[in-house]
Amino acid sequence: MRKKAVPVGIEDFKELIQDEYYYADKTLLIDEMLMNKSKVTLFTRPRRFGKTLNMSMLKYFFDVKDKEENKKLFENLKIHNSEYMSEQGKYPVIFVSLKDLKEDTWEECLESVKDIMYKIFNEYNFLREKLNVVEKRQFDKIWEITGNERNFKTSLLDLSNYLNKYYGEKVIILIDEYDAPIINAFDKGYYNEAINFFQTFYSSALKTNNSLKYGILTGITRIIKEGIFSGLNNLKVDTILNKKYSEYFGLLESEVIEMLDYFGMKYKIEEVKEWYNGYLFGESEVYNPWSIVNYIDNGEIKAYWANVSGNTLLENMLDNAGEGVYDDLKQFTDGESIEKYISDGTTIKSLLSNDDEIWQLLLYSGYLTKAKNQDKESDSNIYNLKIPNKEIRKYFGNMFLNRFFGTEVKTNILIKALENGDIKKFEKTLGEIMINMLSHFDLDKEMEKIYQVFMIGLVGFLMGKYEIISNDESGYGRYDLAMIPIKSNEKAYLMEFKISKTKKRMEERAQKALKQIDEKKYDTKLKARGIKNILKIGVAFYGKEVKVVFK
């Protein structure tokens, strides 16, 4: 029997089934949704966790167009034996994807929206035969792209009315990545114009629409206070914190084992788990599907998801974040979990410009997850959070390297110089890295932040070779940085940092840092672990200059 193909980047359900790609069956999502009968449902999940594929599946299941042909897609799937199979091919469906709205200005964004709606109206141009003169005129404003902004604001509502009139059935509206244009608008500086448009675009179709059967939206964030959903009493919001629907986005461990077994890669399960598991959606342990599929396709354990998930906004936010955020990020990259308040709903403005709410964005975007050891009260919004896996830890390290250190090449030179005992080169390269960092940070006001960035960068770069520990108690105090080799017979590095108030005193401050390592016996823990080869390094900073001494 011919083996099924690995479904890398396949988001169209019909293509996936007809072209015989491997599919982890999620069709009982349909069963559960029809059982719950929520008028409007919003699913928030990280990017590339199966949202678009599930929306495509819903489209092919419900759509009255090509009913019999589409029915064949579900023949060998779980939903086929459900009592709800009778709902297949029963309703007109409007499917709108907004995930690619990444324009730089509102004018460009509006033109892209017009293009999206024109294509959808063009698909339904046969509706015109049943429209009256006024309705035809309105339809043509969208179809011919001659309408103004106001016409396009209500185009979803209008099209659902036309479909209801034609088929005599209420309409299902699917909106994929509803928050993408709003987040992008905030980042690009046209937030007010975007909110003004999308409030009406969404609410007119989902609130006061007598032609609506069900509305289903996906996105990353839960921005319920923008006014988009105000007055919508029948909205059900399902986030990664909810138990309901938790198994339908991402891959369960049983599905991953079955998939690895099918492709002859089951023997790698422990390493796969370390890198791509760790997400807790509701009470379901979930693997990152994008990373699993790419790993099976390439046969190599490495970061796949974090490198393609669109991180510009997050990186810009971290540029402006306070010292406390960097301190917490360092704890996260060290493998610790931290309690954070996650609100029930927010505004994009608050979410993207408030240090306290950055954790909400990181959680919903897939960079953090709930820890298993939750002491959370049922009515509390305090959650114990952690980095889910090695892939995300490496992402943070690499992102900080490239953004703040200059380049990964520079960091490689730094570490090689250290390992080769070339302290002059180490000093010179560290100075160049500091110059790059100080283009982002103020040395006098943000030294602690610079220090944390340095640590996070090293964690990502040296993962698998060294354990990076900072501010840990050993001997009679706490050392600044230890690079501990995974193999105890290799060299370890202990570093202590000092700030010098004058250039003249840099040598003196570096020597004092080095002396402190010996006086306070910072090497006690390393020796207890059987590590004998330890290089001790004192570092002094003055402005953009660095002085290094060692023994």
Q: Notable features of this structure?
A:
5-stranded mixed β-sheet, 5-stranded parallel β-sheet, alpha/beta, 44% helix
Blueprint (SSEs and pairs):
Layout: H1 13-18, H2 28-36, E1 40-44, H3 51-62, H4 67-71, E2 93-97, H5 106-123, H6 133-143, H7 149-153, H8 155-167, E3 171-176, H9 180-188, H10 191-206, E4 212-219, E5 235-238, E6 251-252, H11 253-262, H12 269-276, E7 279-281, E8 284-287, H13 289-298, H14 312-319, H15 323-333, E9 338-341, H16 348-353, H17 358-365, E10 369-370, E11 382-386, H18 390-405, H19 408-419, H20 423-437, H21 447-462, E12 466-474, E13 477-485, E14 492-499, H22 506-519, H23 524-528, E15 534-542, E16 545-550
Parallel strand pairs: 1-4, 1-5, 2-3, 3-4, 14-15
Antiparallel strand pairs: 6-8, 7-8, 9-11, 10-11, 12-13, 13-14, 15-16
Helix pairs in contact: 6-8, 8-10, 9-10, 15-21, 18-21, 19-20
